[in-house]
């Protein structure tokens, strides 16, 4: 028997995620960044700040994004002058990523914008509860697909 949508955890997560994504996208639009561009720029900037010039594969793993989509989005960020992709001398198939000076200025501003959206979106929840719940969700094992 099918659950009523209000009793379906997956459906509720879907609805909440869409609301949150729309809010983030709207807030980032004035910075000329899509949500995924923001995530990849912010992750690149953060990894650079930690002393790492990540490969595209490493960045995709950090961000939790598909490697092919990551490559396409990085090309767009490169065209915008926000990141540089250089051939890795140790592996000519790999590209090392670095935020440009413009990307280094934009990333912290974009992070502040996204964090402000998060603060408003999650304002009805105690911060520690929200973080604990989201960390637990993020670390759930991949579900097995049954046909």
Could you characterize what this model shows?
By secondary structure, the chain is mainly α. It is 61% helix and 10% strand. It is built from six helices and two strands, in the order ααααββαα. It has helices at residues 9-28, 35-49, 56-63, 67-79, 101-121, 127-138; strands at 83-88, 91-99. It has a two-stranded antiparallel sheet with strand order 1-2. β1 and β2 (91-99) form a beta hairpin. α2 packs across α4 and α2 crosses α5 (101-121). The mean pLDDT is 93.
Q: Brief overview, please?
A:
This protein has six helices and two strands. It has 147 residues and is mostly helical. Strand 1 and strand 2 form a beta hairpin.
Distance between the termini: 18 Å
Helix percentage range: 55-70%
Radius of gyration using CA atoms only: 18 Å
Mean pLDDT: 93
Number of strands: 2
**Fraction in beta strands:** 5-15%
């Amino acid at each position: 028997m099918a659950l009523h949508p209000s009793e379906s955890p997956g459906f509720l997560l879907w609805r909440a995620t869409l609301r949150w994504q729309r809010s983030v996208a709207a807030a980032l639009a004035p910075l000329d960044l899509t949500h995924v561009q923001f995530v990849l720029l912010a992750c690149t900037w953060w990894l650079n700040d930690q002393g790492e010039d990540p490969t595209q594969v490493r960045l995709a793993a950090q961000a939790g994004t598909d490697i092919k989509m990551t490559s396409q989005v990085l090309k767009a960020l490169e065209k915008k002058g926000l990141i540089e992709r250089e051939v890795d001398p140790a592996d000519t198939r790999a590209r090392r990523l670095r935020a440009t000076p413009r990307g280094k200025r934009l990333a912290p501003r974009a992070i502040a914008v996204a964090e402000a959206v998060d603060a408003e979106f999650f304002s009805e929840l105690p911060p520690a509860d929200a973080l604990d719940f989201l960390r637990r969700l993020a670390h759930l094992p991949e579900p097995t697909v049954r046909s």
